[in-house]
Amino acid sequence: MTTRVVVADDQALIRAGFRALLESAPDIEVVAEAADGEEAVEAARQHLADVVLMDIRMPKLDGLGATRCICGDPSLAGVKVLVVTTFEADEYVYEALRAGASGFLLKDTEPAELLQAVRVVARGDALLSPSVTRRLIADIAGRPGLAGTGKAPTRLLDPLTEREKEVLALVAQGLSNDEIAAKLYVSPLTAKTHVSRAMTKLGARDRAQLVVLAYESGLVAPGAR
């Protein structure tokens, strides 16, 4: 099955580089390029893309606004947004995840990692690795008013069982499914099932959204273990 990708970046050279890399894989097809956010949204609609590789800083409509448009449109529910940015320098990464992006990559990511990330996102699986999740947590910790305060979790998490809340807290701390399984003395498959059920109950698109919800609900506070 071929994964259909839209490459959105305001620099033609970067778009060309991404296209060449992505199309070197037999299972990935670049169906369109976009030089700004408006073009990215239109291309996602017109070409029924599976993944939009989204730069943040673009003219007309930036990547954050484009992500909101795509992820907020029920007709584009199957489209995943993968933000590509320089994490330390980009203050919009957290907001992009809140807007519905399925994860993000650094622009210095190795070529093989980019190809695998596109495949992972297209499957609907979690993109954020434990190391990337921990970097996201550090970013959240530095943003007063965005993260949970450590107070009792809101009713947002009421649909979850106690075990699912426990698993959610571990996801938010950056643990992989294997690490969660080891910590809770369950199988990796059981851990994955708990994560999947939490996503379904909370309406989360992916693991990235679970991390955001865990902090915004107050289940976990930055620095907590």
Secondary-structure blueprint:
Elements: E1 3-8, H1 12-22, E2 28-34, H2 37-47, E3 51-54, H3 63-71, E4 80-85, H4 93-99, E5 103-106, H5 111-123, H6 130-141, H7 162-172, H8 177-184, H9 188-202, H10 207-216
Parallel strand pairs: 1-2, 1-3, 3-4, 4-5
Helix pairs in contact: 2-3, 3-4, 7-9, 7-10, 8-9, 9-10
Class of secondary structure makeup? alpha/beta
Helix content: 40-55%
Task: Give the strand content.
Answer: 5-15%
The N- to C-terminal Cα distance equals 41 Å
Shape: globular
Order of helices and strands: EHEHEHEHEHHHHHH
What does the radius of gyration come to? 17 Å
Average of per-residue pLDDT values? 84
User: What strand line-up does the widest sheet have?
Assistant: 2-1-3-4-5
Q: How many β-strands, per DSSP?
A: 5
Give the biggest sheet.
5 strands, parallel
Number of helices: 10
Tell me about this structure.
The termini are far apart. The protein is built from 10 helices and 5 strands, in the order E-H-E-H-E-H-E-H-E-H-H-H-H-H-H. Strand 4 (80-85), helix 4 and strand 5 (103-106) form a beta-alpha-beta unit. It has 225 residues and is an alpha/beta fold. Strands 2-1-3-4-5 form a 5-stranded parallel sheet, sandwiched between helices. Mean pLDDT is 84; it is low at 146-151. The chain has helices spanning 12-22, 37-47, 63-71, 93-99, 111-123, 130-141, 162-172, 177-184, 188-202, 207-216; strands at 3-8, 28-34, 51-54, 80-85, 103-106. The protein is 48% helix and 12% strand.
